């Protein structure tokens, strides 16, 4: 999940959120369903980035991911793994849907929420879980405000 979310935080490539949002939705649905391992359709799993683009993504994101990962460790996990995994899946699905929307520069916050939730999931870290859920709620408010502002502007024109 972190791998698919990182490009939406650090790089703004038009259309990239569509490419990264779909696998995030699929992974999120699998978390909700309780699937023990990740499966991606062949059409997605066989795709790849050109070497230069991937190297650029890794070069810019690796120092940030390394710093953040040092802060994650197993702590304060709230209980039954299946229920928490499903909660993370639901939050990530909503964030992936927000990423999928064609709203320029509105991808950063949902992507940060997915990264925090991914770290929480991988390390069973309750602090990252709370941070991810708070970032998810904030992302929903920000995107709703952007959509509402756009709708208000369009309504005012007509």
UniProtKB/TrEMBL annotation:
The keyword Membrane applies. This is Exopolysaccharide synthesis, ExoD. The chain crosses the membrane at residues 12-33, 96-121, 127-155. InterPro entries: ExoD. It comes from Roseovarius tolerans. Keywords: Membrane, Transmembrane, Transmembrane helix. The keyword Lyase does not apply.
């Amino acid at each position: 999940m972190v791998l698919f979310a990182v490009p939406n935080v650090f790089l703004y490539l038009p259309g990239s959120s569509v490419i990264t949002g779909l696998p995030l939705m699929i992974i999120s649905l699998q978390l909700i369903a309780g699937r023990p391992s990740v499966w991606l359709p062949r059409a997605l799993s066989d795709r790849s980035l050109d070497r230069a683009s991937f190297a650029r993504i890794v070069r810019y994101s690796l120092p940030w991911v390394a710093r953040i990962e040092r802060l994650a460790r197993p702590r304060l996990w709230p209980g039954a793994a299946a229920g928490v995994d499903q909660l993370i899946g639901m939050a990530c699905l909503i964030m992936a849907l927000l990423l999928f929307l064609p709203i320029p520069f509105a991808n950063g916050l949902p992507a940060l929420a997915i990264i925090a939730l991914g770290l929480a999931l991988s390390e069973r870290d309750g602090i990252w879980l709370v941070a991810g859920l708070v970032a998810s709620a904030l992302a929903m408010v920000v995107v709703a405000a952007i959509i509402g502002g756009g709708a208000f502007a369009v309504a005012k024109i007509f």
